[in-house]
Design goal:
It is a single chain. This protein is an all-alpha fold. The protein has 21 helices and two strands. It has a two-stranded antiparallel ribbon with strand order 1-2. It is globular.
């Protein structure tokens, strides 16, 4: 996944595999609920146990994490997802750069459209699956030119982005920023379709769950380079730690960083094009065709299992959307510096990289959604503690060491629960996806999941100002601070907030999350006991 995305924001993109011995079954035996309507149905189950036996009999060493001969493939996938995460991280850094230069959250909501290509890529996913050159390779036909395009765009954007960021004393131009970074995200989203499809055939059946782990870990590392890496190197305070003479500028600018990664994309893509081979397309595995793929996609969306799955995901992701989209911006509004926020985020990176690997080791089971549901209550607890932290930040005169320690511990709890949910969810997606549809099926599920996060986050950014009640105190000409705090300050007044829309939205979200855990979680868990045929369609349907 996703999105996603200041420190407290969950990044929604893709991930995971292996079985977890969690507080199982939530009071009832899931295995006893498996039903078969006919002899032709096959229950959803983990990769065949014979795979491990065959490898042992052949004398092969399972190797690192038991990957065996898939180790090189996992490294390649991880590398491709790292590249994908860089433009996503750079896009997420823009709201931080402009937060203190714009008024209200409506312009932040406008910029949030940059994440929508990941939520709309389903529209062109069949093109990526159906149109390719057999000589170059089904996935490399798209992957190579797309990554060259990303590199080229990164080399060009610096020529126009300076004025849009207000570097020359002008105003922030959110339209220009949103346009270019939306295009960059569109290219990354299309690359994601190709990589997701390649992952399904690159790895053996027993290690297919590692596709989602590569996505999570790779995107997290790439996101770190694009987001935290850039904000740290752009920060004068951080750079002065390594200088003999203090300066009021950072080590790099956005323009310099974009050019650097543009060169990296071009060089590494050349390496992939020359040295990484792709499995030849098997005639029996080819897609039905462009039009037929769209028809099959519409049939999948109408499946009862898929509709229930998407509905459950939408409710729970929408519940956490206000917290994920607004927390970092609210802390900046409360007086926390950008440098402090970046430092706090950086401390979580090791956890965000290692946790998916750990979850992969212990969550690759027949019932991965049990792990997902197990993470809901800890995440709700973390959300409530984060809300209290934001409340304290607005009333505190300064931020001491205890504030940062508490913030770090709370973030670890929230991030661990969110990652556990994300990894197990994406592992389930990999399980039910029909390999005959290439990356389209996986993309369909991931697109719906991404949209379940991005749309509520945009709505939260639009609603927070409208739900906030504040008055201008001490001014004879201005009475309200609604979306215009500068006018109040310029007239000699100060804004006094009676009701903060952030707390209203978070309260509603937490009530919905508790209701989901109480009622919908049982419906959600039953999905993994259904036969695999209930998730697939055939040309005769």
């Amino acid at each position: 996944q996703h999105y996603k995305s200041i420190t407290f924001i969950e990044k929604d993109m893709v991930n995971s595999p292996d079985g977890a011995d969690t507080p199982l079954n939530h009071g009832y035996n899931l295995r006893s609920r498996v039903k078969h309507d006919s002899a032709t149905e096959t229950p959803l189950k983990p990769p065949a146990e014979n795979a491990e036996k065959e490898e042992e009999m052949s004398g092969k060493n399972p190797g690192f994490f038991g990957l065996g001969s898939d180790l090189f493939s996992v490294c390649i996938l991880m590398f491709l997802y790292v590249l994908q995460g860089v433009p996503l991280g750079l896009s997420s850094s823009i709201p931080i750069l402009i937060a203190q230069k714009i008024s209200g959250y409506s312009q932040q909501a406008a910029f949030s459209i940059v994440s929508y290509p990941f939520s709309c890529k389903l529209l062109w996913a069949p093109l990526v699956d159906c149109i390719y050159s057999s000589k170059l390779g089904r996935r490399k036909s798209w992957l190579v030119p797309l990554q060259y395009c990303i590199g080229g765009v990164m080399l060009y954007i610096p020529t126009v982005i300076g004025d849009a960021l207000g570097h020359n004393g002008g105003e922030i131009n959110v339209g220009v920023l949103a346009g270019w970074f939306c295009f960059l995200t569109f290219l990354a989203a299309t690359q994601d379709i190709a990589v997701d499809g390649w992952a399904l055939t690159m790895l053996s059946t027993r290690n297919i769950g590692w596709a989602s782990t590569c996505n999570t870990v790779g995107q997290t590392v790439g996101y770190f380079f694009g987001y935290l890496g850039f904000l740290a190197l752009e920060s004068p305070m951080f750079c002065n730690l390594f200088r003999s003479v203090e300066l009021d500028v950072g080590c790099i600018t956005m323009e310099t960083y974009l050019r650097f990664w543009g060169v990296v994309f071009i060089l590494t893509t050349t390496f992939v094009a020359i040295f990484v081979t792709e499995k030849a397309v098997d005639d029996s595995e080819q897609d039905e065709g462009f039009v037929e793929t769209y028809k099959s996609m519409m049939k999948i969306i109408k499946l009862k299992s898929v509709l229930i799955y998407i509905g459950c995901i939408f409710v729970i992701k929408a519940s956490f959307a206000p917290l994920d989209s607004l927390t970092g911006l609210k802390l900046l509004e409360a007086g926390l510096t950008k440098d402090s926020l970046v430092t706090l985020s950086a401390l979580l990176i090791p956890l965000q990289i290692l946790l998916p690997l750990i979850i992969t080791k212990y969550t690759n089971s027949q019932f991965p959604l049990i792990t997902y549901v197990s993470g809901v209550l800890p995440r709700i607890l973390g959300a409530l503690l984060i809300t209290l932290l934001v409340f304290y930040a607005f009333s505190a005169s300064e931020f001491g060491a205890m504030f940062y320690i508490a913030g770090l511990i709370i973030q670890i709890l929230y991030s661990a629960a969110a990652t556990m949910m994300f990894v197990s969810q994406m592992m389930f997606n990999a399980r039910v996806s029909d390999v005959k549809m290439g990356g389209t099926y996986m993309t369909l599920l991931n697109t719906m999941i991404n949209l379940s996060g991005t749309l509520p986050q945009t709505l939260s950014l639009l609603a927070v100002d409208r739900l906030t009640t504040s008055t201008c105190v001490g001014s004879d000409t201005v009475t309200s601070c609604y979306m215009d705090k500068e006018t109040c300050t310029a007239s000699g007044g100060t804004c006094s907030t009676e009701t903060d829309g952030f707390f209203v939205l978070v309260t509603i979200g937490m009530c919905c999350a508790l209701l989901w855990k109480w009622k919908l979680s049982k419906v959600y868990l039953r999905l993994q006991t259904q036969s695999i045929e209930s998730w697939h369609v055939s040309s005769s349907d």
